[in-house]
Amino acid sequence: MKKHTKTIIALIIGVTILIGGVWMINETRYPDVPAFDDHFTRKFLNKDKKVDDGFYEFKSKTGQYTMWFPEEYQIIHKDASDYVKDDTYYEFLKASNNSHDGYKGYIDIELSEKKTNKEKIYVEGLFKNRFYINDPQKLQTDTTRIYYDSAYIYFKGTDKRVIMDFNKRTPSTYAGYIADKNSERVIEFYFDSTEHLSEKSAEKREEWIIKILKSITFKTE
Fold first, then answer.
1. What's the rounded Cα separation, in Å, for the pair 105 and 193?
2. Residue 99: its pLDDT value, please?
């Protein structure tokens, strides 16, 4: 009986070691960066496609667009409202970095469809609500129209204050509206940070944001 018990224990230990070994081999297949440490986030990423320094290709679960995803960020999925996918043309996700110095960055991305002939109204509404402006900065790629801007936002009591003068305060928040030139698909992009940057660092962050905005590519219909 004792011999039989020892055999069973040895078998269990052997299977456990084997499973652990297989798991470790599978884990080493992924890049050693925070985005791939999270099992939910890695479902959206192509581990074999590092598109630029610090970025991997992200593919929406709707199949409607791809973009560059920062390797230090993870998609938040603590509750049902953090990631939402509804049919083919709506998706919302939140992501944050795993900061070790007390500062956090947050990204919100929302895919939807909006009437192209009302684009001016949507854009003005977004930036007026966010920054109290009607005329954001503009960029274009071969397939998208990009509207974006940034500011430092704080509250004095319940009063929202917006500082857009880069010389007075570096931005803490960015907003982008990316419209597909060939359909009614749009993406609203938001970035917020708790970190106060120097002017030089803020310029680098804006370059980082613009890289993400310009990388958004809608699927050809």
1. 4
2. 66
Structural Rg of the chain based on CA atoms:
22
Q: What DSSP string runs through 104-154? A: -EEEEEEEEE--GGGHHHHHHHHHHHHHS-S--EEEE-SSEEEEEEEEEEE
Rounded Cα distance between 72 and 59, Å, is 17
CA–CA separation, 142 and 217 (whole Å): 10
- Here the CATH number for the domain that contains residue 134 is 2.60.120.1690
Q: Is residue 122 part of a domain?
A: yes
- All residues at 6 or more sequence positions from 66 whose CB lies less than 8 Å from its CB, including other chains: 57, 58, 59, 60, 215, 216, 217, 219
Look up residue 156 and give its two tokens.
Answer: 């004095």
The predicted model scores a pTM of 0.85
- Give CA–CA dist 193/71, Å, rounded: 17
